[in-house]
Amino acid sequence: MPRSLLLCLFVFPLAAQNVRVVKFSESDPFHMGEVTSRRIIHPGIGAKKTTLNLSVSQPGAEFAQHVHDYSDDTILVLNGEVNLRQGPSLHLFKTGEVAFVPTGQIHGTVTAGKGDTTMISFQNPPDLILYTGARDSKKKGAAPPKGDITPGAVKYVRFDKKNGEFSNAALGSNRATGSRYLLKKGSKFTTEVKDGGEQILFVWRGALRVSDGAKTYNAGERDTVFIQGAAKLHVIADANGETEIIQVQAP
Length: 251
What we know:
With 251 residues, the protein is mainly beta. The protein is built from one helix and 21 strands.
């Protein structure tokens, strides 16, 4: 290699390729029961440790009961109210609440109230079967899901009262940490991803800028910044009002 080119590689390091913005408009639909959801972060784009799905569910619509054989499921109600269904039992949770569903627990949702409900969920690690429709127990001729319904296994907490972690090992979530941040314009924080880890920054309201020192990435409402591998990032709220971010860290 010519010495001049070698010198350029040291003086001008290559920009990191492990940070990207996934626009909500790029998400793909998938169906479960009576609900159409959007897969935003998923194995199809290379995700190995986490997913991110968004569902808008109409009153009375059921997201079919199912089981994740190897994955934990975390479900956040961003707007509206929904019942978590486990067999015949229903547990109501509403805007600002999260349900943590451990591996092997049967679960689904039924939208309550008179309006639509918006939810996001993340599975850790990704459930490769979920998006194929094979877990849809409401399909004609489908067998009931095989799994557990253990009283108290599903944990419910509020995330809208947090400015930081809402799910972690203390809740039973050993594969990922969920955090929520509400930031005024210009407010910032720093976050790191370790080698082999993944992180999601989902913008529910507002907008943000993310810098890795080499490049700046911009994300608006319902867009997601997805990071894979070692990175140190500066996150800055970039909307005139408040910016609300849901962060998922899967080490």
